[in-house]
Amino acid sequence: MLSSWFVSCTKGLQGILLEELKSMGVKNTKETVAGVEFRDELAAAYKVCLW
Question: Tens digit of pLDDT for each residue in 18-46?
């Protein structure tokens, strides 16, 4: 089951964060003002938190 998640970052670093998440295999990413939203499995969220 897919869930929605948000990873925050300092404004201006969203593009770098987006590329890093994509390189980790995170799906359905969307750059926002101060972070990146993504919609993926719980396992992807765990991977992001542990990275």
Answer: 999 999 999 999 999 999 999 999 999 99
